[in-house]
């Protein structure tokens, strides 16, 4: 039964930061590469090379124990496993131009032909290449038996959710070379290991052929050991220390083994070029790249170039697009790490479905944990921002409250100072008002004295209003004739009616008519028109003085008989009330209300003359 893994399958989404441990288990050595993809940037963190015999890791349990310790020490990363090339098949398949839905069915049929009749399930994967004419489609197909893959995983003692990738040595070698030399178009990669040799042909930078044959470094060692009749360990050490292919110490058996290896390599290449005659003439355009520890033998490269016409070039050490060229001996492990982390141009995966499901669960769990960590970080950030905002608001409100309290304290202190000043002012205000009254009185006396020189009239009485109105009012007789209108309509309109009828005695009132000012009683002899004209000019002149707020005739009910009758001329006697203008000293300062209880001050009523209340009728009304 065949498990289908198409190139159109849903690939795993790589998390932003991911680590993988690539395991290349050979017959004599274990190579480990710990790599990381950090936001698309690939880098190698650690490399480890172990000689299984020297380290005593011969049994499967010892190998599992060591690998588990390495995983725990490196943080339990995901594992990418390399499957030996002799356990897999990689080949280019040509298909006609059919719809994409039919491609997988055709490739599945081809894999059945390639794998033959096998009881084990076959795992395969394929990628499209672009090296053929437009009338055909070309795919690079790799397949392997699931039984061999599971046996490899069990030998390493790995769990299902720890394996993220399984690839072959040929595909890993291709991924590693394309990362080291991305501009190389045609190349033949030869990887010489201890037991086998891997051959890969790249055409237009894409895989075109891959195979392996069971001849490697141990093949050379055994030939030398048989010739020198020594253990293989001694022959291996001797092969690494001396050039046994030329000179006096040359080994004929070793040279024959090398010639047999070179002949097999040429045979594998010639068979492919015979299948592609168009490229046979261009065989020199293919660069021969060698890798593997067996080719590090002294004098081997020079011998192959001279006797076998095989000019090998070392693994490219320039051009570092994906973390640099690999360390010699780690080419395959590095290629597996590149493919597992998504840095291979044409990845081919042989991971069984069961292990893929386990890896998907682990990856989903990791994503949930990563999302939870991000959510927790966002919540902590929002909490920190909210806390900072609340602290800022608290600090601002506290500062405002302190300002309000300071302002209220200043207002209270100001009100207390204002109250003290008002109290002191109220204590001094009567004295200042008396001084103002005295000053107005002196000015009035000077004005009255100045008016005496203008005409032939005299003052019968001059008194302040407090002294004048302190005397009882005069009793009006019913037979007393009314005065003639000497002042005309201007002053006559201002004359009030008596408080009581002339037929009855005058009654006293509780109102105090006295104001700051003077009472002037004067006699103006002469005709009525002359007296009226003079008195009108005198009153109008005094009204222009700013010290007087009112200059008017005093009503009959408010008059007092204080003047000497001898100096009074009947019907020419006039009493004038001179009210001083009211200043700020005459009114008590009102206490200002608190700002928290605003109120509109009522309109101040018009001043009411004490000698003419609003409830009293005017003369002639």
Characterize the largest beta sheet: strand count, sense, and whether it forms a barrel: 5 strands, mixed
Q: Residue-averaged pLDDT, rounded?
A: 80
Sum up the overall morphology in one term. Answer: rod-shaped
Structural class: alpha+beta
Residue windows where pLDDT falls under 50 for at least 5 positions: 1-16, 318-323, 476-510, 594-621
Which range does the strand content fall in? 15-25%
Q: What does the model show?
A:
The chain has 621 residues and is an alpha+beta fold. The protein is built from 15 helices and 17 strands. The strands form four sheets. A five-stranded mixed β-sheet has the order 4-3-2-5-9, sandwiched between helices. Strands 1-7-8-6 form a four-stranded mixed β-sheet. Strands 12-11-10-13 form a four-stranded mixed β-sheet, sandwiched between helices. The radius of gyration is 63 Å and the shape is rod-shaped. The chain starts with a strand and ends in a 41-residue tail after the last strand.
List keywords for this structure.
621 residues; alpha+beta; five-stranded mixed β-sheet; four-stranded mixed β-sheet; rod-shaped; disordered N terminus
Topology:
Layout: E1 2-4, E2 17-25, E3 29-38, E4 41-51, H1 52-55, H2 60-73, E5 78-83, E6 88-96, H3 100-115, E7 122-129, E8 136-145, H4 146-156, E9 163-168, H5 169-180, E10 187-192, E11 197-203, E12 206-213, H6 217-228, H7 232-241, H8 252-275, H9 277-280, E13 287-291, H10 300-307, H11 331-340, H12 353-452, E14 458-464, H13 465-469, H14 488-492, E15 517-523, H15 528-543, E16 548-553, E17 573-580
Parallel strand pairs: 1-7, 2-5, 5-9, 10-13
Antiparallel strand pairs: 2-3, 3-4, 6-8, 7-8, 10-11, 11-12, 14-15, 15-17, 16-17
């Amino acid at each position: 039964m065949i498990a289908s893994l198409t190139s159109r399958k849903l690939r795993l989404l790589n998390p932003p930061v991911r680590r993988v441990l690539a395991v290349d288990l050979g017959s004599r050595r274990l190579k480990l590469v710990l790599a990381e993809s950090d936001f698309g940037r690939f880098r190698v963190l650690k490399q480890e090379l172990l000689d299984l015999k020297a380290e005593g890791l011969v049994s499967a349990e010892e190998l599992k124990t060591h690998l588990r310790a390495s995983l725990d020490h490196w943080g339990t990363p995901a594992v990418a496993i390399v499957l030996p090339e002799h356990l897999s098949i990689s080949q280019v398949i040509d298909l006609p131009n059919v719809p994409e839905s039919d491609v997988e069915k055709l490739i599945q049929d081809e894999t059945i032909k390639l794998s033959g009749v096998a009881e084990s399930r076959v795992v395969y994967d394929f990628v499209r290449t672009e090296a053929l004419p437009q009338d055909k489609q070309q795919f690079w197909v790799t397949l392997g038996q699931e039984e061999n893959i599971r046996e490899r995983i069990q030998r390493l003692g790995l769990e299902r959710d720890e394996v993220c990738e399984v690839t072959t040595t040929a595909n890993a070698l291709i991924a590693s070379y394309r990362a080291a030399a991305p501009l190389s178009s045609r190349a033949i990669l030869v990887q010489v290991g201890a037991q086998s040799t891997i051959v890969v042909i790249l055409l237009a930078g894409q895989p075109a052929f891959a195979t392996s044959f069971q001849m490697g470094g141990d093949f050379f060692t055994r030939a030398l050991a048989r010739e020198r009749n020594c253990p293989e360990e001694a022959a291996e050490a001797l092969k690494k220390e001396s050039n046994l292919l030329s000179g006096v110490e040359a080994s004929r058996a070793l040279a024959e083994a090398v010639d047999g290896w070179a002949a097999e390599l040429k045979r594998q290449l010639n068979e492919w070029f015979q299948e592609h005659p168009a490229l046979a003439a261009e065989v020199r355009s293919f660069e021969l790249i060698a890798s593997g520890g067996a080719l590090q033998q002294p004098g081997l490269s020079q011998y192959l170039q001279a006797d076998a016409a095989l000019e090998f070039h070392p693994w490219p050490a320039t051009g570092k697009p994906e973390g640099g060229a690999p360390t010699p001996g780690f080419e395959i492990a590095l290629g597996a790490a590149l493919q597992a982390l998504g840095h291979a141009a044409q990845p081919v995966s042989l991971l069984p479905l069961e292990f893929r499901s386990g890896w998907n669960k682990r990856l989903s769990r990791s994503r949930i944990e990563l999302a939870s960590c991000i959510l927790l970080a966002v919540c902590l950030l929002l909490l920190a921002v909210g806390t900072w905002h609340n602290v800022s608001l608290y600090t601002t409100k506290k500062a405002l409250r302190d300002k309000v309290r300071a302002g209220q304290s200043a207002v209270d202190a100001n009100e207390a100072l204002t109250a003290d000043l008002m109290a002191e002012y109220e204590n001094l205000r009567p004295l200042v008002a008396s001084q103002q009254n005295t000053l107005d009185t002196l000015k009035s006396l000077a004005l009255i004295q100045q008016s005496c020189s203008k005409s032939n009239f005299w003052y019968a009485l001059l008194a302040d209003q407090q002294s004048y109105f302190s005397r009882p009012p005069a009793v009006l007789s019913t037979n007393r004739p009314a005065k003639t209108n000497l002042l005309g309509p201007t002053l006559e309109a201002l004359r009030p009616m008596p408080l009581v009828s002339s037929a009855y005695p005058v009654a006293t009132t509780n109102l105090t008519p006295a104001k700051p000012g003077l009472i002037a009683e004067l006699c103006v002899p002469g005709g009525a028109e002359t007296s009226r004209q003079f008195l009108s000019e005198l009153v109008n002149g005094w009204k222009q003085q700013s010290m007087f707020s009112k200059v008017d005739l005093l009503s009959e009910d408010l008059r007092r008989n204080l003047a000497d009758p001898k100096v009074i001329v009947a019907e020419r006697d006039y009493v004038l009330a001179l009210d001083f203008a009211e200043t700020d000293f005459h009114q008590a300062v009102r206490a200002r209300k608190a700002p928290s209880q605003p109120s509109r001050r009522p309109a101040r009523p018009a001043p009411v003359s004490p000698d003419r209340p609003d409830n009293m009728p005017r003369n002639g009304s």
